[in-house]
Amino acid sequence: MLIDSHCHLDRIDLSPYNNQLSQALEAARERGVQQFLCIGISLENLKSVVSIAQSHQDVWASVGVHPLDVSNGLASYEELVEWASQEKVVAIGETGLDYYYSKETNLIQQESFVVHLQAAKEAGLPVVVHTRDAREDTINLIKQHGSEASAGVLHCFTEDWDMAKKALDLNYYISISGIVTFRNAGALRDVVKKIPLDRLLVETDSPYLAPVPYRGKSNEPKFVREVAEYIAQLQGVSFETLANITTENFYRLFHKSAASQ
């Protein structure tokens, strides 16, 4: 069985499913996907994300403000801790740093990231981290303000092995998306081969970054199977082994979801 550890269910294309999220989730379940983590990215979509999780037994939610959304409003420490107390919320984020697109908001991003790390520490929940072109600052802020006890995950990882190793040393997990299947992702594939199996997660990041052979199409949770099958080949294990281990990893990291199993 598989878990899509990072998807934006409030944004996926539902037109093939009569505009019914329940049908899209059922299509994923038919391919062995047993859980979904629906990611909050802004103050505007937190209610929607939590509502989706509350409406589906096998969907969980995270709450946070994406680094590219910080100019639209920041979440306070108190707000994040309050959101984290809700039953279906199992993580803080998506938060982190993205210097590739928005260098002018670097300082605001850092401020927001620190608040998320501190709130996660208070709530005892893991952090879902987005990082791009901000390797040193991401690791340093995690060291200074994060918690190794609950730690978190670097999602949709595309950085180098040096950063991955530093994150692993801080008790973080590494999540891999469909990017690993792209023709030009050779460097990432080399990194994935080195990541310990017990620290790997798989995700779609849907509706973005559909894996080969669906690249260019709208992504959806059922395609996490292609991601997992590809990573299994890179790691030299069977698909069943990869699926079982990444599922165990998910429940270990997002421990609040495991408590209800």
Automatic annotation (TrEMBL):
<dbReference type="GO" id="GO:0046872">
    <property type="term" value="F:metal ion binding"/>
</dbReference>
<comment type="similarity">
    <text>Belongs to the metallo-dependent hydrolases superfamily. TatD-type hydrolase family.</text>
</comment>
<feature type="binding site">
    <location>
        <position position="94"/>
    </location>
    <ligand>
        <name>a divalent metal cation 1</name>
    </ligand>
</feature>
<feature type="binding site">
    <location>
        <position position="130"/>
    </location>
    <ligand>
        <name>a divalent metal cation 2</name>
    </ligand>
</feature>
<dbReference type="InterPro" id="IPR018228">
    <property type="entry name" value="DNase_TatD-rel_CS"/>
</dbReference>
<feature type="binding site">
    <location>
        <position position="155"/>
    </location>
    <ligand>
        <name>a divalent metal cation 2</name>
    </ligand>
</feature>
<dbReference type="GO" id="GO:0016788">
    <property type="term" value="F:hydrolase activity, acting on ester bonds"/>
</dbReference>
<feature type="binding site">
    <location>
        <position position="205"/>
    </location>
    <ligand>
        <name>a divalent metal cation 1</name>
    </ligand>
</feature>
<dbReference type="InterPro" id="IPR001130">
    <property type="entry name" value="TatD-like"/>
</dbReference>
<feature type="binding site">
    <location>
        <position position="6"/>
    </location>
    <ligand>
        <name>a divalent metal cation 1</name>
    </ligand>
</feature>
<dbReference type="InterPro" id="IPR032466">
    <property type="entry name" value="Metal_Hydrolase"/>
</dbReference>
<keyword id="KW-0378">Hydrolase</keyword>
<dbReference type="Pfam" id="PF01026">
    <property type="entry name" value="TatD_DNase"/>
</dbReference>
<keyword id="KW-0479">Metal-binding</keyword>
<protein>
    <submittedName>
        <fullName>TatD family hydrolase</fullName>
    </submittedName>
</protein>
<dbReference type="GO" id="GO:0004536">
    <property type="term" value="F:DNA nuclease activity"/>
</dbReference>
<feature type="binding site">
    <location>
        <position position="8"/>
    </location>
    <ligand>
        <name>a divalent metal cation 1</name>
    </ligand>
</feature>
<dbReference type="InterPro" id="IPR015991">
    <property type="entry name" value="TatD/YcfH-like"/>
</dbReference>
<dbReference type="GO" id="GO:0005829">
    <property type="term" value="C:cytosol"/>
</dbReference>
